[in-house]
Write a structure and sequence with these properties.
- The chain is mainly alpha-helical and about 325 residues long.
- The protein is built from eleven helices and two strands, in the order ααααβααααααβα.
- It has one domain: NCX, central ion-binding region (A middle domain of Talin 1), CATH 1.20.1420.
- The protein has a two-stranded antiparallel ribbon.
- The chain is globular.
- It starts with a helix and ends with a helix.
Length: about 325
């Protein structure tokens, strides 16, 4: 039994590593293609990079639905959103000591983030997520994208020199996307087996190991952007990733769910979803003065430690 558990753990680690590397290829090529089209850094962060770093969440969620473990989906979404704000934003704020927001995220991006979180709360009130609600969520991301690409670059006022994207970028975009989906299948398979052997509920694994693992691209990309002085891209990455997780991962996963729908564990609705709402509101309050300090970063990490601790107390 011990050897079997170790085998599936190694499969989980290797498949997750491939998932992250493939996502990295997708992100880098997407950024290069985006810059070649004259898209501003903030919009790249809130759309192309954010959506690219959220590919693991989407891939693992769809794979979970297809394998009959749909309870992983909402745990993945809620856990990743909490992790993105509490861990990713917290680490970035501590790393750079002070995040200065050149762009007014309260103009459209933060209201959309709050709106997506509140909409998810109301949609899951009956522990069901219908086709109608899935369509509403997907319409929401279309509206967000339309506004972002239309006016984001003009408002930020940043100019980037256009450079033609190489053929390699387009190849890596396709290869990275394919590897993301393939490795996601093995990740979910390993999770299924490990949870069965250890007797740990799948939603706990989704909230912790899967949420943390699939949020690693956000951590890496956000810290890299912050080190280069592009804090707008780092914050935009967190904003866009959470909006993408809520609208797209929930919406598309439900479409794959068929007549069975998505299983919504009561613990998610009773505790973790409210915690996600609180973290989203706290993010907005911290950003009102257009800066996030190291002390606020430490507070965010405190919330993450609490999140992880409560998860295993309540399991």
């Amino acid at each position: 039994m011990g050897f079997e558990a170790l085998t599936y753990f190694l499969i989980f680690v290797v498949s997750l590593a491939v998932l992250l590397k493939a996502s990295d290829w997708f992100i880098d090529s997407g950024e290069e293609i985006g810059l070649s089209l004259g898209i501003s850094p903030f919009i790249i962060g809130v759309t192309i990079i954010a959506f690219g770093t959220s590919l693991p969440e989407l891939a693992t969620s769809v794979a979970a639905v297809l394998s009959g473990d749909s309870e992983i989906v909402v745990g993945n979404v809620v856990g990743s959103n909490i992790t993105n704000i509490a861990l990713v934003l917290g680490i970035v704020a501590i790393w750079v000591r002070l995040i200065k927001l050149e762009y007014n995220i309260w103009h459209i991006d933060m209201p959309f983030l709050w709106g997506s979180a509140f909409l998810l709360m109301f949609a899951l009130r009956d522990q069901d997520f219908s086709y109608f609600e899935a369509i509403i969520f997907l319409v929401g991301i279309v509206i967000f994208l339309m506004y972002s690409f239309k006016s984001g670059g003009e408002e930020e006022g940043e100019e980037e020199e256009k450079k033609k994207a190489s053929a390699k970028s387009y190849v890596l975009l396709v290869v990275g996307g394919l590897l993301v989906w393939l490795s996601a299948d093995y990740t979910i398979m390993a999770i299924q087996e490990m949870s069965a052997i250890a007797g740990i509920s799948k939603e706990v694994i989704a909230l912790s190991a899967v949420a943390f693992g699939t949020s690693l691209p956000e951590v890496i990309v956000s810290i890299s952007a912050a080190r280069k002085g592009k804090t707008s891209m780092a914050v935009g990455n967190v904003l866009g990733s959470n909006i993408f997780n809520t609208f797209v991962v929930m919406g598309i996963s439900r479409l794959f769910g068929g007549s069975k729908g998505l299983l919504i564990p009561s613990t998610i609705q009773d505790f973790y979803l409210p915690l996600m709402i609180v973290m989203t509101i706290l993010f907005g309050v911290m950003a009102i003065n257009k800066k996030i300090t190291i002390w606020e970063g430490l507070l965010l990490l405190l919330f993450y430690v609490y999140f992880i601790g409560e998860m295993f107390v309540m399991k």
